[in-house]
From TrEMBL:
The keyword Nuclease is assigned to this record: no
Enzyme Commission identifier(s): 6.3.5.5
Organism: Nostoc punctiforme (strain ATCC 29133 / PCC 73102)
GO molecular function: ATP binding; carbamoyl-phosphate synthase (glutamine-hydrolyzing) activity; metal ion binding; ribosomal S6-glutamic acid ligase activity
Name of this chain's protein: RimK domain protein ATP-grasp
Gene Ontology cellular-component annotations: cytoplasm
């Protein structure tokens, strides 16, 4: 296919030297007339006054960066552009955004690419546009620097946190509906009465009292001690003077950390003397939120390796050893140069899918280097490993090593015994010991703290070792399959308020205890109770699917709504189409394999049900409602 240029086409966004023009952006959160997933849709055209290079010239340049694209053939510049946008849209993070489509019109082509975060995808489109124009003009294009900017854009979005994205991607792969609730700042998984909401690994079904309790490290430590579990000797202090006194009484080395904290921020291990303790105290003090009183833990520092044991729904599922950030000398480069070199590795892209973060240079690192008689300007002899921190903080560049299959049964029982005392979906237990392969009963073993909102990336993408699919363990706590996360949905292309009420009544006669959410362009109902209708149609649909009591959803999606907003959800159990337009036929596209599709064209009726097709003609004065109400029995 060759995209035709029109002399009547007005240049819209194209600059004076551009050969391509891009315009009419629209973002859909769900299935739409162009793609059966959330998508960014835009129009692509050639500028009439300029000629693009032969398509093979673009393919040759693009193939240098993406060999998989360079080995293919394309019908037109538009097809190439669409596939490049889709590939770049993965951001070298292996994001799950792989679908795209091209629909030709006389003067332009409409391109659709699967999208999660609108702003990032839009910037990807502009990025690829600039790349194509640079190829046309034979100009240099700083691809890698611009790609990092796009990665950072996605990383800063509500979907860009490693744990959030891991759960979101796993939900997508399992067919579990997942979407962000902007007003609440939460992710929702599942629909209606089946749904759960949460922030990362904390969910609405978790005990907020237990979650808050884990942040009170002093009380939590005392509780673990009453259970007979090993915890380090220590005390809580309120001033630097008290910290020095506590350290003298406990005996060096000690560990210092804020009572309230997370991600190892403000934690210093292996403090050897009063000078180090002053610095450690100030770091812990700086980590305490302004609205919290000064409370700092000083406890005995236990020698050994740092491990995270993870329980999901009270069961042990994974263990990871965490090591501080380190570099290996080559005899030529300084420590600062070695760190810069290490941070350029793909494994340290610091994205939602990379196994390691970038190594952070700060005061704590410089002080620890000073203890080793080193500085950032030191040249390290070849083969020597230099650890850059005392604490194995993964967010500051530490390494994670899978230890799941090495854990002694006694230690698994210990972790599960602790988790059973908390009404929390996920619980991270941080311990220090020589090896998890030795029983805690006979080794130098100490529980450092427990965490109510543990991250999952260290287990899913460890720096070394096998991946443990923690996101699946979490989501399977709520849903055995994608089907278990959904409520039945009946979708119409056209239904009046009266017909909607009739349908609600028909279902309630069979299930009087059900709660039915229903929406058409003119009204919103929960059972027969009329609710406030939002101007944004999909907001009404989302509100009903967010309702924790709704057993079944009925929704109307007419052509104008599909064009303007698209659908909020994927797949229906029953689709009822009354003289549908070409656009409205997409409702029959987005159905489950066993769904029922009823189509009326004039008086002709077609019913598709579980692979069978039934055709007949309505009798004179026979209402269409009679046809589709009979079909509701297939899902009731």
């Amino acid at each position: 296919m060759v995209l035709q240029k029109s002399s009547d086409l007005v240049r819209i966004n194209a600059r004076r030297t551009d050969v391509f023009d891009i315009f009419n952006f629209k973002h859909y959160v769900g299935p739409n007339p162009y793609l059966d997933a959330g998508a960014l849709v835009f129009d692509f055209a050639l500028v009439d006054s300029r000629e693009p290079l032969p398509i093979d010239d673009y393919i040759a340049s693009i193939g240098d960066r993406y060999p998989n694209l360079g080995s293919q053939s394309y019908e037109s510049h538009a097809y190439l552009f669409a596939q490049v946008v889709s590939e770049v849209g993965k951001l070298d993070m292996d994001l799950h955004l792989k679908h795209w489509s091209v629909k030709p019109y006389p003067d332009f082509v409409r391109i659709s690419v699967q999208s999660l975060h609108e702003r990032t995808t839009r910037e990807v489109v502009y990025f690829v546009w600039d790349w194509f124009e640079a190829i046309t003009q034979d100009e240099d294009f700083n691809f890698e620097e611009q790609l990092v900017r796009l990665q950072n854009r996605f990383r800063a979005s509500v979907y860009g946190g490693p744990t959030v994205y891991a759960l979101l991607r796993t939900a997508y792969e399992k067919g579990i509906p997942a979407f962000y609730l902007w007003e609440e700042g939460l992710m929702q998984y599942g629909f209606g009465k089946k749904h759960v909401r949460g922030v990362a690994t904390t969910f609405n079904c978790d005990s907020h009292l237990d979650s808050e309790f884990t942040t009170r490290k002093d009380d939590c430590k005392a509780f673990l001690k009453t259970l007979g579990f090993p915890v380090p000797e220590g005390d809580i202090v309120f001033s630097e003077k008290e910290a020095l006194a506590a350290a003298r009484e406990i005996g060096y080395p000690v560990a210092v950390k804020p009572v309230v904290g997370h991600k190892g921020i403000g934690v210093t291990a292996d403090v050897q003397d009063s000078k180090e303790l002053e610095s450690a105290y100030n770091r812990a003090l700086a980590a305490i939120p302004e609205d919290q009183v000064t409370r700092i833990i000083v406890e005995k520092s236990i020698s050994g390796s740092d491990f995270r044991m993870l329980c999901v729904n009270g069961r042990f599922v994974a263990a990871t050893e965490r090591r501080p950030a380190s570099v290996v000398g080559d005899g030529y480069l300084t420590l600062a140069e070695l760190i810069r070199l290490e941070n350029r590795k793909p494994a340290r892209l610091d994205t939602p899918t990379s196994p390691m973060s970038k190594i952070q240079i700060d005061e704590a690192m410089e002080l620890y280097l000073e203890e080793q008689r080193l500085s950032l300007d030191s040249v390290i002899e070849k083969g020597r490993t230099v650890y850059l921190r005392k604490v194995a903080n993964l967010s500051a560049g530490g390494m994670s090593i899978d230890a799941t299959h090495t854990v002694h049964d006694d230690n698994i029982i210990l972790a599960q015994d602790i988790a059973q005392h908390f009404q929390l979906t996920c619980l991270g237990i941080d311990v220090i010991t020589k090896s998890l392969s030795e029983s805690w009963k006979s080794s130098n073993f100490a529980i450092l703290e427990i965490n109510a909102a543990p991250g999952v990336l260290m287990h899913l993408k460890p720096s070394e070792g096998e991946s443990v699919d923690v996101p699946s363990h979490i989501l399977e706590t709520f849903f055995e399959s994608g089907t278990d996360s959904r409520i039945p949905i009946i979708t119409f292309n056209r239904i009046s308020v009266e017909e909607l009420q009739t349908t609600i009544d028909h279902i309630l006669l069979q299930h009087p205890n059900w709660t039915i959410g229903a929406v058409c362009r003119d009204a919103v109902f929960v059972n027969r109770s009329k609710k406030v209708l939002s101007k944004n149609y999909n907001s009404n649909v989302q509100t009903l699917l967010r309702h924790p009591k709704v057993d079944l959803l009925i929704a109307e999606y007419a052509e104008d709504i599909l064009d303007e907003e698209g659908m909020f959800y994927r797949n229906s159990n029953i689709v009822v189409l009354d003289n549908p337009t070409e656009t409205e036929m997409m409702l029959a596209r987005d159905v489950f394999d066993g769904s029922t599709v009823v189509i009326r064209k004039g008086n002709d009726i077609s019913i598709r049900r579980k692979g069978l097709i039934e055709d007949y003609t309505l009798a004179e004065d026979e209402p269409f409602t009679r046809v589709y109400l009979k079909e509701t029995g297939t899902i009731l």
